[in-house]
Specification:
Blueprint: E1 2-4, E2 17-19, E3 22-24, H1 34-40, E4 49-54, H2 66-72, E5 77-83, E6 101-102, E7 109-112, E8 133-137, H3 148-162, E9 165-169, H4 205-216, E10 222-225, H5 252-261, E11 281-284, H6 289-297, E12 304-311, E13 323-330, H7 338-352, H8 371-376, H9 380-387, H10 392-398, E14 417-423, H11 429-442, E15 447-451, H12 465-471, E16 477-481, E17 484-488, H13 495-502, E18 508-512, E19 521-524, E20 532-534, E21 537-538, H14 543-553
Parallel strand pairs: 1-10, 4-5, 4-8, 5-7, 8-9, 9-10, 14-18, 14-19, 15-18
Antiparallel strand pairs: 2-3, 6-7, 11-13, 12-13, 16-17, 19-20, 20-21
Length: 558
């Protein structure tokens, strides 16, 4: 069975924080990780003996390690830690087996889920002795090859067999919702893609775990603790620090190029490990950096420029040798296609140095098949490159892959979710809005409203001091009183920018007055007098059902 925790309880963030004699209210940021929501509503772990599958990137929004936060919860006993690839402290390099240990900071036993055999990738039933709940708090990077999501899926299966509930605290996909790269063909799933999904999959870790459970019919008690105030287009929230989830994922820029640059692991090119900019710079001693950059730039790949570089890895491939290569300068992330860029980069290197370029042939992630086939999900790319064939058709297919399951979607594309309320003049739009807002608030939702008019109208009393401030040229100009604050700006800003700036704490914003908007819409009076249409149904006789549907669209209920 799958459960979803309730939305975090709303209420005071705590008493005012006094500084000297002047009280100040601590205003918390709106965005919240799943673990923050768990701390706010710990019903799924209360009174339990808890194990944690985590790593150093697992922190609260205030930067507290998740294991410390769990220990603070009344009635919760943290008894064991599980560490994925790179270890519980995130210090081990890729594909280095990690042994069991004692976590130095907590003194807890740390069981490694990345040992020397495939069987070591999942907890054994004995690992759940004395455990009631397994909490998972892992940061994914939005690429199929990144192994943490597959560690979580294997842990779910093991927890199900042991009768232990699993609670997954969700985190953002730093690449947002864009998709790229076909799913693996049958027979090509592995620990760098345990279930068929696109390379750049556009989902969060919790969504992929949920999809894995539903599509593989995993019998397990799963609770998802979603994030607060995250939309897929937002990708990584502003002002939230990035904590490296693995040794060679130091920045968001690294995560951005990783869907294509990781393919280099399947070759004898250096992916920049052993340097300060892994995956952003690619090369080998046998490549001419200037010529390589020129050839890649001539392809005119969208959103990226290639800069000739020389680097000397301190470990792994070509350790101590000077490599000629390129650095990817992503100049327009919105149109950049990292997976296609990686395919073209490898193709170009193979053609530039046919006598030196090689595919990786040693075992890779517990598999003996060519690493590049496991990463791309089939032998097709390797065979095309070896034959010197044109990649145009293959690359074109990668731009529009079949999306992951829509049944496991937990978040809207944009946050906050905006719904238009439209209809003819005097159709009753404002009356409908007036009725819906209290219904939605009664469901625990924070609801905002926007009224638009194409006419320039005064929104203040002429002659009053606040109006005189605006007339004098104050821009913005604010009017503060005990019950409310009004801010006026001399501009009509784009709706999404307004929502991002001023409505981020809302679950839902009802928007009235625009003639047309590319958002979902409640049509008032379109089907006839007093009709209220949404989602192809007339809700005029049951506004409560409409409120419930709006809550579902906003992700408050599932």
């Amino acid at each position: 069975m799958t459960g979803f925790t309730k939305k975090p309880r709303r209420g005071s963030p705590g008493p005012p924080v006094a500084t000297g004699s002047s009280p100040r209210v601590k205003i918390l940021p709106v965005f919240r990780f799943g673990v923050d929501a768990l701390m706010n509503d710990p019903a799924s772990v209360e009174g339990s003996r808890v194990a944690l599958l985590g790593h150093p990137a697992g922190t609260t929004s205030e930067g507290e390690p998740t294991w410390k936060a769990l220990r603070r919860l009344p009635g919760v006993t943290l008894v064991r830690l599980f560490g994925p690839e790179h270890g519980i402290d995130g210090s081990d390099q890729d594909m280095i087996s990690v042994g069991d240990s004692v976590h130095a900071a907590s003194g807890l036993p740390a069981r490694s889920l990345y040992g020397t055999t495939r069987a070591s990738l999942a907890p054994a039933e004995s690992d759940f002795s004395g455990v009631d709940v397994l909490v998972c708090d892992l940061q994914d990077v939005g690429s199929r090859y990144y192994t943490f999501v597959w560690s979580a899926c294997l842990a779910l299966e093991a927890a199900g067999r042991a009768g232990v509930r699993m609670v997954v605290c969700d985190r953002p996909n730093p690449l947002g919702g864009a998709l790229e790269g076909e799913r693996q063909r049958p027979g090509f799933t592995s620990f760098v893609g345990l279930h068929p999904v696109p390379v750049r999959h556009g989902r969060t870790l919790a969504e992929l775990v949920l999809q894995y459970q539903e599509e593989k019919r995993v019998e397990a008690d799963l609770t998802i603790v979603p994030m607060k105030a995250w939309g897929r287009r937002r990708a990584w929230p502003a002002s939230v620090p990035w904590v490296a989830p693995s040794p060679n994922m130091p920045t968001l820029d690294t995560a951005r190029v990783y869907p294509g640059a990781c393919l280099v692991e399947g070759t004898n090119l250096s992916e920049g490990r052993g340097t300060t900019r892994p995956f952003e710079q690619i090369g080998a001693p046998y490549l001419d950096a200037e010529r390589f950059a020129d050839r890649l730039n001539s392809l005119d790949l969208p959103g990226v420029r290639f800069r000739a570089v020389h680097f000397r890895p301190q470990f792994q491939k070509f350790a101590g040798a000077v490599c000629g290569g390129v650095f990817q300068d992503v100049v327009d992330p919105g149109i950049y296609r990292p997976y296609e860029t990686g395919l073209r980069l490898i193709e170009t290197a193979a053609r530039e140095a046919p006598g030196d370029f090689r595919w990786r042939c040693d075992p890779y992630e517990f598999e003996d098949r060519p690493a590049i086939d496991l990463l791309t999900g089939s032998p097709e790319f390797r065979e095309l490159v070896d034959a010197g064939d044109d990649l145009a058709a293959f690359c074109a297919r990668q731009r529009d892959p079949e999306p992951p399951s829509s049944e496991a979607v937990l978040y809207a594309d944009d946050w906050p979710v905006a719904i238009a309320v439209g209809g003819q003049h005097d159709a009753g739009k404002t009356t409908v809005l007036e009725k819906l807002v209290p219904m939605l608030r009664a469901r625990g939702m924070c609801v905002g409203t926007v009224k638009h008019t194409p006419h320039d109208l005064d929104d203040d009393v002429p002659g009053k001091d606040s109006a005189r401030h605006t007339a004098a040229g104050g821009d913005p100009s604010a009017f503060l009183r005990p019950s409310a604050t009004t801010v006026r700006r001399r501009e009509e800003i784009e709706l999404r920018r307004l929502l991002d700036r001023d409505f981020a704490e809302c679950d839902l914003v009802l928007v009235e007055g625009f003639k047309s908007l590319p958002i979902l819409r409640i049509d008032v009076g379109r089907l006839g007098p007093f009709s209220i249409e949404f989602g192809g149904r007339d809700h005029s006789r049951n506004l409560g059902a409409l409120a419930e549907e709006l809550a579902r669209v906003a992700g408050v209920v599932r």
